[in-house]
Amino acid sequence: MIEVEQEQNQKIKVLLIGEPDVSLAELEGLCKTAGYEILRKVNLNRIEQNPVYGIGKGKADELSALAKELGADAIVFDFELSPRKQRNWEKLTKLAVFDRQEVILRIFADRAQTKEAVLQVNLARLEYSLPRLAHMYGDMARQRGGNYGSKGSGETQLELDQRQVRDKIAFLKKELKQVVKDRQTQRKRRSKTPCPTVAIIGYTNAGKSTLLNALTGAEVFVEDKLFATLDPTTRKLKLQNNSSILLTDTVGFISNLPHSLVDAFKSTLEEAATADLQLLVLDSSDPHVMEQYETVIKVLGEIDADSTKRLIVLNKTDATNPIEFMQNRLDELFPDAIKISAKNKSGFEDLLNKVQDALLGPVCIFGLPHKRHDLVKEIRAHGILINEIWQEDFIQIAARIGTQEGGKLIALLKPYLLS
Length: 419
Fold this sequence. Notes:
4-stranded parallel sheet, 6-stranded mixed sheet, 14 helices
């Protein structure tokens, strides 16, 4: 694998190559996030079952010449390259050649902050590089000497490096296992507190961190780039009548997310599976919003988080494309969606009301006989008491009874339900 060095204040210049009839907009966004300069985007006419390049030799030569003509430092493919094809392309072009997966790994490596994220990224990068080590050596038969009983008398440099990488992978998995165990312990502690949990999920750059900041006053890093957030952040949000919820911002999803990263970040993504409610945030101004929605649903299925109660939130309504067809299409597909602008803090009242309805149940009005005033205490303990008015013949109560513990209470209150 050829490594391309990036000089200070000088961007790596890349040529992007994609499959037939597939938009390269997302790969372009990934490359810009990684700090690359895009020279040109090229979609192939067809993909061939060619073991050397994946396309015909003539087309490969044409693209190689184009890269040299443009002065490219690297070629980036929007689809996965096998280690063999990657090496063949690098021999042909004398340039660094890598795929979408490598770009994502580089972004993650640059943005990881917490110990868990760093471990996860390092593990994913090592697992990605292991089958590619064979292509980093010109002489595969180089031998390394060694003492008896250490490396083996005939161990090649490649075999030595592969063993070192495997040892490092095993060490990282052990370290990550302990970090995951600590996270699960923290999660159990949170579950003991009577505070519902809400996970903010969605495609990368949909505005999840902006929403968390706007609702809670948190100071989560926000940037108009893909994968601005890798580490989950949890903040408490006070609702009406002194009730509270825990809001967690999670790593963004993306189409064709490498399985190594899905596996590595599984413990982080589990926040979406263990939450009481998911807020699935969509960028309503993005023309590819439906494809992004389908990607999120697919990944949720892969991590067994697709059965959790969920609200659809259409964000960035302040920047929504004014095309009437797009608006009508979103309304048709998501008739119950909550429309907001996290940037302008509009639509928040409706959002918080829907969150309370989903977690705590709708507001119900009860007329309790004076002799059953004991039920008021039960409502305070297992629900949300909104209003209490003592009338001449009964006690008028407005309350939300939505917790699991409130199941029996609902049965007791049902005869006194007014609305």
